Each structure stands twice: as structure tokens, then as C-alpha cells.
Amino acid sequence: MKHAGADRLWPFAEGGESNLAVATAVWAGALIISRRWSNPLFRLLGFVLTIIYLLILYFFRDPNRPTIEQPGMVVGPGDGEVVNIVREHESEFLNQESVRISIFLSVLDVHVQRIPIGGKVLRVQHHPGQFLQAYRPEASQVNEYIATILETPYGLVLVKQIAGIMARRCVNYLHPGETVYTGERLGLIRFGSRVDLFLPADARLLISIGDKVIGGITPLARLKEKEQPA
Predict the structure, then answer these.
(1) Nearest one of 104, 113, 116 to 212, comparing CA atoms
(2) What is the pLDDT of residue 133?
(3) Whole-angstrom distance, CA of residue 35 vs CA of residue 102
(4) Residues annotated catalytic, as ranges
């Protein structure tokens, strides 16, 4: 079944409006100055700020992505490179053996995160912390992050939006109790960052370290439906 992930006409990420407003105001002011005064320095300034402004628009892009939803299929929670896959006991939120998939987002990747598999939002929690380089293994525990716990027919799933050395703020769109679908927008991390996905230990992985993934599209794993108590 296909989900459009709540297609939007506005092509930029929710949560980046203040950054875009400031960037637009600075760029427009520099453009006016460079045209009003013919000083070469002002023209150079206008050119440089135009390049920076276009890069900011590119960073905050939020393309619509139809998602193919299949039973038990987990898709990428964000764009980037798989930098780590480990099996560990996640004790803070899930209290279960899990498979952690870490995805590093460069400044060139789309920074909007998406629901990896449909379910019900149990909890959304902000955790203040440090701002180490997001690719470092310990970043999952010590960096600032927002944790989203999903209850699915296949068990509990945890998504961590992790801030990095440049990413100083994570934005989450969800609220506990709401039902969400695979591929829907989950939130935004500003600038270079990382997303950690915790799946049940019996997940059958479809990716490897070094793979590039696309949020809402790339299949990451298949999960088995849990037996319901009699």
C-alpha cells in the first residue's frame, strides 16, 4: 500500500521557518545594498550571500516521497550512510535486546526524518546532552537527542534524532497517542547529524555498513509479527 507521507506544497521542512526567514532577510538586504551602491566589495558580498542563501534553501528541502508500505517492512528513518550496526540491550526506553542501525547525515543530505514503520506513538522525550561528532559511537548515549518510541504489531521500535557538532537542535512533529504510518514525516535535525534506529532483535536486516539509504524509501529490515496473548 502506498502512503504519500502527507504530501506538502511547501517544499521546505517544517521547523526551519525561522532559519529561512533570517536567511531571506539577510540575502534581500545584501542584494539591495549591492545594487544601490556599485562598490565591487558590495557586489562580491551580494554574490557570496546569494550562494550561501541557495545552500540554506537546499539544506532545508523537504521532498514528497511516496512510500511503499508492506507488512513488516522497515524503511529508512532518514537519508544518509549506515555507519554502524550492533546488537545491544537498550535499557533506557525499550528494556530489550535490540539491533541498532546508525545513519550519519551529511550537510548535503535531506534532514527530515520519517516513520520507519507504522504504529502508535508511545513516547516522545527530549534528552539534553553534548554535541560530539555525530559519527562517533558514543554519540547515541551522550549527545543531545529526541527519542520516539513506536508500538507496532512487530514489537517496540525506537528512533533517536541525535544532534551533532553542527546540529544544535532537533525538532519532532509527533505526539504520544497518535497513529502514524510508514514514511510519514517524523521531524527535522538542523545541519550535520545522526539517526539511530532500534529494532527487535529478530529483525532480518537488508542493509550493511556503508550503504546509502533514503528516508521513507530504502528497505532496511523485515520484522516478524508478534503473537498476541490469548
Answers:
(1) 104
(2) 58
(3) 47
(4) 193
